[in-house]
């Protein structure tokens, strides 16, 4: 039997949308979630692709996500938009607020969007690309569940706390990076366990605090931050800016709310966006050219830009579709 099955992007969309609506999600939520899951499959980001359907249904059955959530948008200051996600997925809140937030950023030059009371499981590049597509520079972050030990510590405290940044370019794809502040994303750790694969060294410790390459042992112990104390400080910043500052759950609070159900993290997201043209003043073309010269100097050395792998995959899968692990496909269908 073939190990992989092939799906067009339209088939992947149907699979996701049908699974979510049959599970009980509203059409609006199912569409918002499907958009990101299929975008991740298209771009080759398997840990945040259709695999997440299993977690969405688990989160729903555990009563940790509102399947008929209706986000509420409030402009609380000229440059601050708050969206109460109504305990639904962050993705619907983002979708509903994206146009009015863009308008605010274009008026003010810079603005922040806070998404509160959201369930968050998605790849953060998707969120910043919403705004680079609209010509804005964007920075986004969210805490998750307390799985990661601070550098020098041995007990889980931080979430995997991703940070994503996007810069629209003069021509072509934006400059985007997006990474967990842990040494490995939880989604990748879960896929290693699912596929019985050993981890590379340096990603986690067991419950005795000893280095481990066994995904199950690391899940019982703690994941580590990337870049030691530097990743630890960035993870702390995410807890502060997208937890305390926006008065929402930190990663320990999210894990406590989860109550051992294995649901997706619950809490908030912060997006800060800037209008290049307002910042760049009289000679924006010169300023944009400075940015372009940095990108060229990177690639001229043979180095690649972050997200280049995704953009290359995107071009291929739009016409050729995607492949899905057969066992995963069967697990999704059996939902
Ligand atoms: P990766 O380590 O896979 O990638 C991090 C970034 O570095 C990407 O932008 C990637 O681009 C880029 N990159 C990778 N290799 C190179 C290279 N050789 N040269 C230049 N750039 C490179 O990401 P993570 O595993 O840390 O995170 C995976 C996903 O998990 C992210 O999308 C993140 O948002 C998501 N996540 C979500 C959470 C949540 O709570 N919602 C929590 C934690 C993670 P490219 O993609 O093109 O390879
Ligand atoms: O991969 O770390 C992760 C993650 C956490 C929540 C969603 N993805």
Describe the structure concisely for a colleague.
Belongs to the LDH2/MDH2 oxidoreductase family. By secondary structure, this protein is α+β, with helices and mostly antiparallel strands. It contains 13 helices and eleven strands.
Give short descriptive properties of this protein.
45% helix; 335 residues; two-stranded antiparallel sheet; single chain; 13 helices; binds NADPH dihydro-nicotinamide-adenine-dinucleotide phosphate; alpha+beta; 18% strand
Give me the secondary-structure topology:
Blueprint: E1 4-7, H1 9-23, H2 27-43, H3 52-61, E2 72-77, E3 80-84, H4 90-108, E4 110-119, H5 124-132, E5 136-141, E6 163-167, E7 175-179, H6 186-194, E8 204-205, H7 215-220, E9 222-223, H8 229-244, H9 251-258, E10 266-275, H10 276-280, H11 284-300, H12 308-320, E11 322-325, H13 326-333
Parallel strand pairs: 3-4
Antiparallel strand pairs: 1-11, 2-3, 4-10, 5-6, 5-10, 6-7, 8-9
Bound molecules: NADPH dihydro-nicotinamide-adenine-dinucleotide phosphate and pyrrole-2-carboxylate.
The site of NADPH dihydro-nicotinamide-adenine-dinucleotide phosphate has 28 residues, from helix 5, strand 7, helix 6 and helix 12.
């Amino acid at each position: 039997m073939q190990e992989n099955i092939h799906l067009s992007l339209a088939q992947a969309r149907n699979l996701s949308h049908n699974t979510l609506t049959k599970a009980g999600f509203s059409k609006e939520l199912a569409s918002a979630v499907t958009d990101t899951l299929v975008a991740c499959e298209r771009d080759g980001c398997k840990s945040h692709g259709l695999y997440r359907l299993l977690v969405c249904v688990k989160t729903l059955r555990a009563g940790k996500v509102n399947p008929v959530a209706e986000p509420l948008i409030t402009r609380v200051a000229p440059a601050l938009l708050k969206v109460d996600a109504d305990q639904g997925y962050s993705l619907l809140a983002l979708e509903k607020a994206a146009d009015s937030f863009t308008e605010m950023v274009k008026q003010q030059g810079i603005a922040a969007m806070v998404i509160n009371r959201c369930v968050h499981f998605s790849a953060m590049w998707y969120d910043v690309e919403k705004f680079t597509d609209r010509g804005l520079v964007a920075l986004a972050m969210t805490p998750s569940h307390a799985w990661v030990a601070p550098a020098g510590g041995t007990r889980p405290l931080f979430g995997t706390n991703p940070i994503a940044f996007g810069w629209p370019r003069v021509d072509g794809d934006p400059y985007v990076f997006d990474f967990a502040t842990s040494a490995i994303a939880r989604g990748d750790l879960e896929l290693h366990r699912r596929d019985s694969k050993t981890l590379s060294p340096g990603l986690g410790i067991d419950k005795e605090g000893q280095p481990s390459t066994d995904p199950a042992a690391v899940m019982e112990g703690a994941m580590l931050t990337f870049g030691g104390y530097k990743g630890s400080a960035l993870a702390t910043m995410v807890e502060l800016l997208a937890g305390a500052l926006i008065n929402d759950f930190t990663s320990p609070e999210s894990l406590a709310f989860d109550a051992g159900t294995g649901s997706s993290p619950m809490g908030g997201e912060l997006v800060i966006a800037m209008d290049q043209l307002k910042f760049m003043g009289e000679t924006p073309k010169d300023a944009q050219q400075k940015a372009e010269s940095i990108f060229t100097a990177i690639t001229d050395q043979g180095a690649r830009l972050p997200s280049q792998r995704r953009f290359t995959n995107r071009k291929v899968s739009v016409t050729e579709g995607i492949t899905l692990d057969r066992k995963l496909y069967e697990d999704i269908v059996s939902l």
